[in-house]
Design a protein that fits this description.
Blueprint (H helix, E strand, L loop, with lengths): L2 H12 L3 H7 L4 H9 L6 H19 L14 E3 L4 H23 L10 E4 L1 H18 L5 E5 L7 H7 L1 E3 L8 E7 L1 H7 L7 H11 L1 E6 L8 E4 L3 E7 L5 E6 L2 H17 L1 E2 L7 H7 L5 H15 L7 H11 L5 E5 H9 L1 H8 L6 H17 L5 E4 L6 E4 L1
Parallel strand pairs: 3-5, 5-6, 11-12
Antiparallel strand pairs: 1-4, 2-9, 3-7, 6-10, 7-8, 8-9, 11-13
């Protein structure tokens, strides 16, 4: 992302011509045209004034309820802006960021060392996390990306940070791998500080990446977020709780932290598996939790058996197994719709395609009858952005 691409995109979103924008920020149209074409750069002593005026003008023209959606092609990781001032501050940080990018590009040499950049305070950390993340996602959109994170997603102060973030990436074609390292004991302790919607956060990550949850003793009090070979964000808190974030991009730092996270990942206990891997894991870990294994196998059998005629016993056995020991089952509303009207979308679960609508309806009716009979069963229909079935034990 550079000044030219940022300005061009924002003017389009705002519905402003170059001439009108130049007038509003006190700049000649020819100068603005030269900046957008890349033939002229904003001088260091002019940058603060330009950034402030540009952010104010554009925020005034763009801000509306849920206007963040307008930025999906520019900032695929962003926040929902609570006010025009909120948007103005975000754009102010974005302009400073791209002007620095342009300066570094002009001064680049193979031996160049990038200066570490430091950010402090909840809002500045939030803005810059979104801006940096978005920038590299767009830079690398045609490449395989490998992310490592020890940021707490569900509990504690960093989960509060994540709750402000909106991810506007399209469903992943498989080019983003995301390793999330977590410490269960510290997660439980931090639950009293802040707790997020765990299911919602899991679903959001699954939308755009292949996520692997790894139980680890990595230091989650000083977490990091890293895109392999590109950048690292180090997080910390001051004594008064103020959030801080440092951006590292030098090759030596990237190599050192990648080795550290790779070792932590290899020593961690994997806690998430895809459909093709789960049976292999259970065979190699016969002494793991038998109740959990039975629940996993009940779900796995949905895809490992040929289509069976729907019967009351089949449905009852499934629910009896997955709900044992006070477990809860969550079904997305979209999953029910997909099963009824698009069995192709559901085929990966049942290993069957193009089922007659009557057969699908019979299954749904049997499930409904079971839930009418056992009203106390912990089965919940939820609105989530995926065709999803989740069991919480």
């Amino acid at each position: 992302m550079n000044t030219s691409t940022l300005l061009t995109s924002l003017l389009e979103i705002a519905g402003l011509t170059q001439k009108k924008f130049a007038e509003l920020v006190g700049m000649s149209p020819s100068t603005l045209s030269q900046i957008i074409s890349g033939n002229q750069h904003i001088r260091s002593d002019d940058s603060s004034n330009f950034c402030s005026k540009a952010a104010r003008v554009l925020a005034h023209r763009i801000y509306s309820h849920r206007c963040f959606i307008e930025f999906k092609d520019l900032f695929p990781v962003i926040i929902d802006f609570y006010s025009r001032h909120d948007l103005e501050q975000f754009l102010l940080h974005a302009f400073h960021y791209v002007i620095d990018n342009d300066r570094e590009a002009r001064e680049y040499s193979p031996a160049q060392r990038f200066e570490n950049k430091h950010y402090s305070g909840y809002m500045q950390v939030l803005y810059m996390y979104c801006i940096i993340f978005s920038d590299y996602l767009l830079r690398e959109e045609n490449s395989k990306m490998e992310f490592y994170s020890s940021l707490a997603l569900f509990f504690g102060p960093y989960a509060k940070l994540y709750d402000r973030i909106e991810t506007l990436l399209p469903p992943s074609p498989g080019n983003i791998t995301y390793y999330h390292l977590f410490n269960p004991e510290k997660s439980i302790r931090n639950a009293g500080i802040y707790s997020t919607d765990v299911l919602k956060k899991i679903h959001e990550l699954e939308l755009f990446s292949d996520v692997y949850y790894m139980e680890s003793d990595v230091d989650v009090d000083r977490p990091l977020f890293m895109l392999k070979d590109r950048y690292i964000l180090l997080f910390s808190q001051q004594i008064d709780g103020t959030l801080q974030m440092t951006l590292l991009r030098n090759p030596a730092d990237l190599a050192k932290f990648h080795d550290y996270m790779l070792e932590a990942r290899d020593q961690a206990n994997r806690r998430s598996f895809n459909q093709d891997e789960i049976e292999e894991f259970m065979l190699s870990h016969p002494d793991s939790d038998p109740d959990l294994n039975e629940k996993i196998m009940a779900i796995a059998r949905l895809s490992n058996t040929e289509y069976q005629t729907p019967t009351e016993e089949l449905v009852a056995d499934f629910f009896k197994t997955v709900l044992r020991n006070d477990a809860a089952l969550y079904l997305s509303a979209d999953l029910i719709s997909s099963f009824l009207y698009s069995t192709e979308a559901f085929g990966s679960y049942l290993n069957c395609f193009d089922l007659p609508l009557q057969v699908c309806t019979d299954y749904i009716n049997l499930v409904s009858d079971y839930l009418q009979k056992y009203r106390q069963a912990k089965v919940y229909l939820v609105n989530t952005p995926l065709d999803n079935l989740t069991v919480i034990c």
